[in-house]
Amino acid sequence: MTAFYRISAALFYSLVYISISWADGIPVDKVYHPYVLANERELEWRFISRQNDDGNVLAQRLAYGHAVSQYLTFEGYIVGERDDTGDFGLQAYEIEARWMLTEQGELWADWGLLFELEKQHKKDRYEFTSGLLFEKEFTYTSLTINALLVYEWGKDIQNEFETEFRLKYRYRYLASLQPSIEIYTGEDFVGVGPGFMGVHRYHGQKQLKWELAFIAGLNGDSKDHTLRFALEYEF
């Protein structure tokens, strides 16, 4: 498939987002890069803690991923979350696919697509996410943008579309230390804050990535902040 047809699909997603209102969820999570490495496998752990006037939400994700080609990778997740009584348990299952539309440096920017299906544990509640991934390098900095469309359905929820927007502007100071600014938006929510990431490379394509960010909500609540941390081992 040529770059023209891959980008045409990406532009279609951009047109869809124009007509959709912003999401009412809390979209502070991983900012996805559009890249896929052939034969790549990975183990991933994510931790998110959000504190606001309603209390504390704590969630963790464990995942295993495998690239099936130089353009396409799949990843499966189990999601744990602390409930209203303070108990931590299994909350959802997810399957995710990332499709790299362009080779890195092939066009003026790098593009990809994200697809994700989530099923709530022991509940008739589903969520399907699709989105456009964008990254552009400017000398020693990189701009990464995720524009995501979410559809929720099930017996105990209202069927609805939502959207999420995530942005990371990163300074590639060192491979092991790359500071950034991250922005997240949704309906009644805007969050911004500092982030850091780093990569430690081993033999071959083995490497360990880490990310840390502190996002402050700017939506008017007296207290609304989120801490996110992630470890990803690629081999």
Number of strands: 12
- Across the major sheet, the strand order is 1-2-3-4-5-6-7-8-9-10-11-12
Shape: globular
The CATH architecture comes to Beta Barrel
Report the CATH topology name: Porin
Radius of gyration: 18 Å
Question: End-to-end span in angstroms?
Answer: 27 Å
- Give the full name of the CATH homologous superfamily: monomeric porin ompg
The average pLDDT score comes to 88
**Number of helical runs?**
1
Q: Which range best describes the helical content: under 10%, 10-25%, 25-40%, 40-55%, 55-70% or over 70%?
A: under 10%
Name the poorly predicted regions: 4-25
Description:
By secondary structure, this protein is mainly beta. The protein has a single domain (3-234), classed as Porin, CATH 2.40.160.40. The chain is built from one helix and twelve strands, in the order αββββββββββββ. The protein has a twelve-stranded antiparallel barrel with strand order 1-2-3-4-5-6-7-8-9-10-11-12. The radius of gyration is 18 Å and the shape is globular. The two termini are 27 Å apart. The model is unreliable at 4-25 (pLDDT under 50).
Question: What distinguishing features does this structure have?
Answer:
235 residues, 1 helix, 12-stranded antiparallel beta barrel, mainly beta, Porin
Précis, in short:
With 235 residues, this protein is mainly beta.
